[in-house]
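REQUEST
  id: r-88c1
  op: predict_structure
  target: 6-phospho-beta-glucosidase
  payload:
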Amino acid sequence: MKFPKDFLWGGAVAANQCEGAYNEDGKGISIQDVMPRGIKTPHTDLPTEDNMKLTGIDFYHRYPEDIKLFAEMGFKTFRTSIAWSRIFPQGDDAEANEKGLEFYDRLFDECHKYGIEPLVTLSHYETPLNLAKAYDGWVNRDLIGFYERYVRTVFARYKDKVKYWLTFNEINSVLHEPFMSGGIYTPKDQLSKQDLYQAIHHELVASALATKIGHEMMPKAKIGCMVLSMPTYPLSPNPDDVIAAMKADHMNYFFGDVHVRGKYPGYMKRYFRENHIELKQDKDDAEILKNTVDFVSFSYYMSVCETADEEKKIKGQGNIMGGVSNPYLPASEWGWQIDPQGMRYVLNVFWDRWQKTLFIVENGLGAVDELVDDGKGGKTVHDDYRIDYLKQHLLQVGEAISDGVPVMGYTTWGCIDVVSASTAELKKRYGFIYVDRNDDGSGTLKRYTKDSFFWYKNVIATDGEALYEK
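RESPONSE
  id: r-88c1
  status: 200
  body:
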């Protein structure tokens, strides 16, 4: 079984991790602008100079150079996000910021210049800070209306430029990072389950509403959801561990279940009952949720284990979404366990569960890269470790396609080096393109192609055939 000829090969970034220009052309402050250490430490009240994301990799000014490099690799699609606070600086503004809209006009036009289809995330961990502070983020139902205004504005503006849309990035991550994912200002350790799941309900309604509006305004467009996939294996064959793994999976699956099936699954209704959670719903919410997505997209970086034995619950260092370390798997420099076969597994599970076309929109290896002389008067990075990681995962995508799973595309995370969301570091690099910037703010911002750049170019040019060469 071959990769399909219309397979959407490409790469992915997020506005808040690459654009910089945090206070230019009328942009408002987002939650990312007050997270100088990512999710590692509490956020600040105002942007501080040590926040790497304020400058990012200066994509805001350098995007033509970067898009040209993506085109050289042969990208069919480029996933990015729109910074909500560029369009509505406070989030609750009555009018959109025209200069913000013009920037994305230029960006999408640059993509089309090279035949690259934009894949656009509407909300990628960058809620306007005002909506977090004044409304407590998605805990407040008013955010549905603010999000609707934003969605209608960008759909009307870019309906002829963008075919593929994602409503929320890794929507299930709100379970573990409520400020970053849901703009919830209440500290995590003080947030009640009632308020957390009320916020989730508001996001799910807003997502379905965006899908409905997208289908009405752009009949030919495809609207997808985006979840963080974290396949959970039982730590042992003990039935208690199997049930523990099932319950852990349920907490992530339910977001996709609602997006695809248009209603809450029974196991979540039980969870709500047993935890005394009573969702406040408007009379139209059930009907709105019936506006289901066209495809399911997801990130995949690692798998985890789960056990019912409290004494064996050794959490993996990099497992943002919880879980127990797998004794059979190696880990990256940041403690993320590497499991290529988990890619095939999760593709099969998602297809069997939802029967919706799947799109892998994040997958990659964060590593410390060394910029060295290339022997031709320039510089490069010899990143065989990244090539091996991506190759092993793509081979498993090929296995899933052979299993009969419809996969519409694959966009590697951080196709150009970006500032890490979890740690706000630049030394944790993912890209095919090295950006000369360091965590102390030094560097020229010059771009250098890595060995993986040419490897991925060949993979795309051969429609994946190069993966099977000895």
